[in-house]
Amino acid sequence: MTTFKTITFALAAAAMALPGAAFATQAAASAIALTGDVKAVKVITAADGTETTELVEPNTIIPGDRLIFGTDYVHGGSEAVSNFTVTNPLPGAVRLAPDADPALEVSVDGGKTWGVLAALTVPNSDGAVRPATHTDVTHVRWVLASIAPGAKGRLTYPAIIR
Fold first, then answer.
1. Considering the chain, what is the average pLDDT of its residues?
2. Which residue of 1, 80, 126, 138 has the smallest Cβ count within 10 Å?
């Protein structure tokens, strides 16, 4: 059983690696504040059998539970920022969920190379390569083409406890 504190620690460690603004000026990029969180996906079944989904604080989680990892950004500066990159390492206790956006840019090699999952491969122990799967993803990232002063947004990806 994995506890919320373990995942919170992993998310906090991941959040420390976030603000990679590869092409923005350091001063402009530093005007963007990033905060991360994690929510558990809880399905509630009513007496009539209808189901609703809620995002709740994860107290106790077990393998197979779904989580939503989120990063909020707020631009507090006075200049637009271009090509701002937000990179989130996946905590080791989770894997990218199969219903993640297929256009999401991911890495399967610790952040060395990037692409959509369908285009990536990983080596087998015998040296042959195979198509990468959701369980191989080590990082996700978004490149925000332009962030205007005062703009804010939320970036999310779904994950499943291993």
1. 86
2. 126
CA atoms of 76 and 127, how far apart (whole Å)? 48
Q: What is the mean pLDDT of residues 33-52?
A: 94
Residue extents of the structural domains in the chain? 2-161
**CA-to-CA dists, residue 96 to 18, 25, 45, 138, 139, angstroms:** 18, 31, 25, 9, 9
SS3 33: strand
pTM: predicted TM-score of the whole model, two decimal places:
0.80
- For the chain, percent of residues with pLDDT exceeding 70: 83
Coil/strand/helix, residue 43: strand
Distance CA 142, CA 64 (A): 26
Report phi then psi at 136, rounded to 5: -85, -15
Cβ atoms within 10 Å of 134's Cβ, excluding its own: 17
d(CA 46, CA 95): 30
**Comparing 30 with 77, which gets the higher pLDDT?**
77
Residues 6 or more apart whose Cβ sits within 8 Å of residue 14: 36, 88, 89, 90, 91
